[in-house]
Design brief:
The protein is an alpha+beta fold. It folds into 2 domains: 83 residues, Glutaredoxin, CATH 3.40.30; 118 residues, Glutathione S-transferase Yfyf (Class Pi), Chain A, domain 2, CATH 1.20.1050.10. The protein contains 10 helices and 4 strands; from the N terminus they run βαβαββαααααααα. A 4-stranded mixed sheet has the order 2-1-3-4, with helices on one face. Strand 3 and strand 4 form a beta hairpin. The longest helix is centred in the middle third of the chain and has 21 residues.
């Protein structure tokens, strides 16, 4: 299997299947395609257009099969490795986990737009300003906190549905945003976020992200290039 991803510092969508595959021991070859821009004539778009019809990341290639979109990749992995425990075992918990992943996939646009993933940065002042000025971001954060808290209360933890699952991997990029922007969480949600952050798979992604040193101005219109 090959997993095509973008810059680890910025690409939240790439992080989801990468963390899941790393955590569950699913062997794959990483193919990183650097973001230069998202214009149609960019190197990134030209490269990815040869891999999938969307020209985006992530993309999973398994032999002659190409799977794009994070939800499709998640389901393909769960079907291909049914004994790995990617989704919760219990039917109701599995349905709730899928619901949360679908909600993340389609929603929280205000938070995602205002607080782009940027693992190497520390921007609590940006987070404070965004929360003060944008009610939609406050609403997104409140919904995330409630969703995580409800799942933890139902499962007893330590992860959203007991053991680490695709749901935890799916929200790992949000945990990164919480840290970068200093976003406040309730105690239970904050403790879960710390556990996700400390997993070997997430820490491996973070380690790689911190080694990139690839400042992309079009991804960071809220600050100047960091001093090196």
């Amino acid at each position: 299997m090959q997993l095509y991803i973008g810059n680890k510092n910025y690409s939240s969508w790439s992080m989801r299947p990468w963390v899941a595959m790393r955590h569950f021991g699913i062997a794959f070859d990483e193919v990183k395609v650097r973001f230069d821009s998202f214009d149609a004539d960019s190197d990134f778009k030209r490269t990815m257009a040869r891999v999938s019809p969307t020209g985006t990341v992530p993309v999973l290639v398994d032999g002659d099969l190409t799977v794009w979109d994070t939800l499709a990749i998640a389901e393909y992995l769960a079907e291909t490795f049914p004994d790995a425990g990617l989704w919760p075992r219990e039917r109701a918990a599995r349905a709730r986990a899928r619901s949360l992943c679908a909600e993340m996939h389609a929603g929280f646009r205000a938070l995602r737009g205002a607080c782009g993933m940027n693992i190497e940065a520390s921007l609590p002042e940006v987070g404070q300003r965004v929360l003060a000025e944008q009610p939609a971001v406050r609403a997104d954060l409140a919904r995330l906190d409630a969703a995580w808290s409800d799942a933890l209360a139902g499962s007893g933890g330590p992860f959203l549905f007991g053991d680490f699952s695709l749901a935890d991997a799916y929200f790992a990029p949000v945990v990164a945003r919480v840290r970068t922007y200093g976003l406040p969480l309730s105690p239970g949600a904050a403790a879960w976020a710390e556990r996700v952050w400390a997993t070997d798979a997430v820490q491996a992604w973070v380690h790689d992200a911190l080694q990139e040193h690839d400042f992309l101005a079009f991804e960071e219109d809220y600050r100047q290039a960091p001093a090196r």
